[in-house]
Write a structure and sequence with these properties.
Helix content: 25-40%
Structural class: mainly alpha
Largest sheet: none
Strand content: under 5%
Number of helices: 2
Distance between the termini: 62 Å
Order of helices and strands: HH
Radius of gyration: 23 Å
Shape: rod-shaped
Oligomer: single chain
């Protein structure tokens, strides 16, 4: 093969790989639990129940998350 043909093939391959790269950055807000959701156990339960069931979505970052607790109320079930 000629050097020119190899050069064009390399350029086309690089362009295809760049086009398939996606550019889908992870939205930080979509992957972290908002501070307002940890205000009370009721608010946290409501937040967890309203999360959409989605297998394609990035998992939530729960590092440092402390779900609120209450010594006086019974636990609420999360139902869909």
């Amino acid at each position: 093969m000629h050097a020119t043909t190899l050069g064009w093939m390399a350029l086309a391959t690089a362009a295809l790989l760049t086009a398939c790269g996606g550019g889908q950055g992870v939205d930080e807000e979509a992957t972290t639990v908002p501070a307002s959701a940890t205000a009370t156990p009721e608010v946290f339960t409501r937040y967890a129940a309203e999360l959409p069931p989605d297998e394609q979505r990035e998992p939530l970052n729960v590092d440092g998350l402390s779900p609120p607790t209450s010594e006086t109320t019974e636990p609420s079930p999360i139902t869909r």
